[in-house]
């Protein structure tokens, strides 16, 4: 299962946010594919389509889909040199599939800032630089090895060498690996290098309680947005402290709390959905009278692979995927009406499943 790592300097609110995640979080028993690990929090993906499908189908049970966040504490300046157990933390980052970088955007004189003052851009630069330095070291090691093989006319090495050179140049200019453009074949080689700065990243601006209603007045958030725009990265604004409080409420209380604040969706829910997209994940649904359920697949998966997420037998014996898009089903009002309107397609093994598809798999046993 794919996981997103929460990183950030000390005292920016990572643990508070992670607490909110685990308290709001799903029981791992319901999600057998998820890891049981104190550093892993399972979140259910908020999806209004699931609510609507439940209204339409009236099933006995509704099951949302979930994925994992991993808490990666402890990155500090000098981590790439092994300071403060730095290398260990970088190794943890290597294992995640996307990075959520928490940035302190709240002023609070009682809470020490590691650099002495609140300065989100400088914080981001510290972290990004550590990741870049770690990658630069990996790339340089690889260059010395692959360079020798390329001289001996090793075919793969001759392909990889110029890619490494380009990565090195970018990293030396403080650019992350993800900023370098590669062809799909080159991208495969880059993927094999497991670079930290090749992972997709978003920024989480942690604001104070006073800024939740209108974060646009927070100058730190503005700065983070400007910075992130250069990297085409998304910024999600949360108040970790409030999220921690919300996570203790049940669904109804939560809705009341948010409407009192005049907020439609909690920052954490926004973060969950943005991270899901960042990981390249998407959702299809199964909808029967027993159960309406959301399933996570990787964008680009074909119908048989998606069937395999439910059960490997479904993939092996795959015949057809009876598919209707969410919008078509809602417009028709029921599965029967959608079928009568010719909106239910019979898709074969080459079908690229789309986010929001409602699918009934037909298979041989
Ligand atoms: P970490 O070191 O990044 O894990 O940071 P923590 O989550 O432990 O937070 C450090 C301190 O900042 C704690 O005292 C938190 O209560 C406080 N804190 C975290 N988020 C907020 C926030 O949104 N507003 C305020 N005022 N304090 C916060």
TrEMBL record:
It holds the Pfam family MMR_HSR1. ATP binds at residues 11-16. InterPro entries: ATPase_YchF/OLA1 (IPR004396), Beta-grasp_dom_sf (IPR012675), G_OBG (IPR031167), GTP-bd (IPR006073), P-loop_NTPase (IPR027417), TGS (IPR004095), TGS-like (IPR012676), TGS-like_dom_sf (IPR023192). The gene is ychF. Keywords: ATP-binding, Magnesium, Metal-binding, Nucleotide-binding. Its cofactor is Mg(2+). The keyword Metal-binding applies. Belongs to the TRAFAC class OBG-HflX-like GTPase superfamily. OBG GTPase family. YchF/OLA1 subfamily. This is Ribosome-binding ATPase YchF. Gene3D superfamilies: 3.10.20.30, P-loop containing nucleotide triphosphate hydrolases, TGS-like domain. Residues 280-363 form the TGS domain. The keyword Transferase does not apply. Residues 2-258 form the OBG-type G domain. ATPase that binds to both the 70S ribosome and the 50S ribosomal subunit in a nucleotide-independent manner. NCBIfam families: redox-regulated ATPase YchF (TIGR00092).
